[in-house]
Amino acid sequence: MKQHTVTDSPYGPLTLVATDGVLSGLYMTAQRHRPDEETFGEPDPAPFGETIRQLDAYFAQELKEFDLPMRLEGTPFQQGVWDQLRKIPYGETRTYGQLAEALGNVGASRAVGLANGKNPIGIIVPCHRVIGSTGSLIGYGGGLDRKQRLLAFECGMPDDALF
After folding, report:
1. Does the annotation mark 155 as catalytic?
2. Mean residue pLDDT across the chain
3. What is the pLDDT of residue 133?
4. Which residue out of 16, 18, 81, 127 is catalytically annotated?
5. 87 in Cβ contact with 46 (< 8 Å)
6. 162 pLDDT exceeds 70?
7. N or C: which end of the chain has fewer CB within 10 A?
């Protein structure tokens, strides 16, 4: 059974989706790879109280690491990439190549990028913390402007201070 709700954030409305009461999606407006609205289930804020509380604390810079049950559905490779994303500390970045190396496949940086782009739980599974090998901002399903703003936010800088 799926349910969803929409919550406000400094980065626009966030659609939260739960499958059987467990967070399975966090989507921004106009996000690449955003599923059709019809797949989000019935509107019901009940399963999202703790998720919203932690998101609010994150946006208030009071929380640096989320502690939520999540249901991430994807291939074993995608699961591995998403697990590596959760290991990137707040305010830090990694390159696609570094993630590929951590997965034991140094030649898989493009595949890592594709899996990163299909991350179903943005912000909480911090795909915005992945950058290009030259340190440049590349690829973000929520848009490069949001990626830049999220990275600057985590570093305590003005929105346009990085990159």
Report:
1. no
2. 93
3. 87
4. 127
5. no
6. no
7. N
